[in-house]
Amino acid sequence: MSLQEFIPTIQRLEKLMPELLQVCNNPSAQTKDKAKDQAKDKAKDNLIADGGTKDTLIAKDQAKDKAKENCLKLLGSAVRRWVILRSLYDRDSDFFVEFDMEKFNCADWLNKFKQVKIDYQSVTLESWLFNDSTDYVKKELIRALKSRYNLVDKDINDLLEIQVFSVSERTFRNQFTQLANLKTPLLKRQVVNETSKAKKLIHNFCKLSIYDIIKFLTAENSSNNNTDTEGILEVFTNEVSEIAELLFTKIKGQQRLFIRHEYVVNEDLHEPSADLADWLKEIWKIAPTPPIKITYYSAYLNKKSKYVVYPVCLYYYQRAYYLCAYGQRPQRNEKQPSVGWYNYRLERVKSYKKLSWETTNLPFSQSEIINHPEQYSPDYIKEQLDSAYGFDFYEDAEVMLLRFDPDFAQRYIHKSSRHVTFEKLDSYEDAIDLIEEVEKCARSKILARIKKYPDAAYYTLRYRQNDNNVIMRIRAWGQKVEVLYPEKLRQRMREDIEQTWQLYQD
User: Contacts by 453-457 with C-beta closer than 8 Å and gap 24+?
Assistant: First the structure.
């Protein structure tokens, strides 16, 4: 089976160790606001200075330390179960245990496990989790652990150094029993001396089908909607998911696939953007999703303003992250609606807070959004992105006609996948038929251009008007492409080229 089913995620660890659900962060209590933390520290110092409260504060700190220690212990136990599970069901792991018989006990397993992993007692949690996974998986899980359980770097270091199997054989037996006693059992447990007079019952175990295990690992956890890295391949679009598993797995200890992630956002803004993304994930766990209020800096308008929006999803597009939301929006001109869809660059969101549906004077109707989820969902946005090229899916769409140099088209454009609406016309006559349907005033000039190049390659593309990503794509093809229609887009390209030409006039 694929390693994808055994990629370590918080959701899978919590399925194996349900007690972890009791120690995870309360979403409403999560904060990384340094100002608030400093205020708490100052308040604590003031209380100590007043006298009579030092013992109480020490007791509270000790309770917190004990709770965190318990959390790390549970995580270690969860990883131990995860390793046992892989040893039983994952043939691709280097510690898979093969049994000749259907039934076995913990001692049988341990004897074989010692043979395939001689140094098992000294292997750290870090090695068990990430030895055959890439740095990407490690980075994502550590980030999720910090957010989920409010852990700091020292806690993570302590966790990674745990020697998971430096435990007694009794602990081993308990782990097998617990795997069989989960709400969805991962082993069958059978009494072998039920008819004898022995006072203590002896149990053997049987493996389940691999399909039951895959179903358990990949099924959504109804008691916990956290999906930090669950279903990780599903976030890839444009068929990238077909090869992306190489991004998470090593082949004979080496990673063989690399993705150059161009993130143009200033490094100082990476962490605030990640904090906002974590905060939004908690917002989306609330049913129904509440509206939020953001302070947003519009680079186009060169000013900050406050907007009340309904957050829908996050997208990485053209080297930056965006929040796709419906609600109040920056207006580039008077014709644009003040309320509608908008893509907010994540690092330009300067502040944010959760609102309730009872907030007065919301710019949109609760009933309209809640009662029509299909129109305010990630699926709707995906449909709109598929219907026309460009990320500003809320802009009007129109069809463009492009003429490519035939040799260039044959080498670089033909049979390439640019967008679902990007289509090659069979001949220049088809291009003529298309233009015959446009306004008479623009028709003659376009027809003349087409007839001048009967051997050219003609393509049509449905695109979003006023989307700068569309303009940049056409610019990248340079002199190898000509925009024939629509005239407004053709004029835009002409003006841009003329202005660029002026820069190089000495």
Answer: 453/403, 453/428, 454/428, 455/406, 455/428, 456/403, 456/404, 456/405, 456/406, 456/409, 456/428, 457/403, 457/404, 457/405, 457/406, 457/409, 457/410, 457/413, 457/414, 457/424
> How far is residue 357's CA from residue 23's CA, in Å, rounded to a whole number?
29
128's tokens:
């068990």
pTM for this entry: 0.60
- Residue 27's pLDDT band, with cuts at 50, 70 and 90, is very low
Is 468 strand, coil or helix? Answer: helix
3-state secondary structure at position 376:
coil
Q: Where are the domains of the chain?
A: 3-230, 267-387, 397-503
What pLDDT, on the 0 to 100 scale, is given for residue 56? 60
DSSP bridge pairs for 340: 327
Give the span between the Cα atoms of 110 and 239, in whole angstroms. Answer: 42
- Amino acid letter for position 63: A
Which H/E stretch holds residue 154? helix 153-160
CA–CA separation, 379 and 372 (whole Å): 13
Helix-strand-coil split of the chain, %, nearest 5? 50, 15, 35
Indicate the pLDDT class of residue 422, thresholds 50, 70 and 90. very high
In Å, how far are 80, 142, 148, 249, 359 from 129, measured between CA atoms? 10, 11, 18, 12, 45
Query: Over the stretch 448-468, which tens digit does the pLDDT of each residue have?
Result: 999 999 999 999 999 999 898
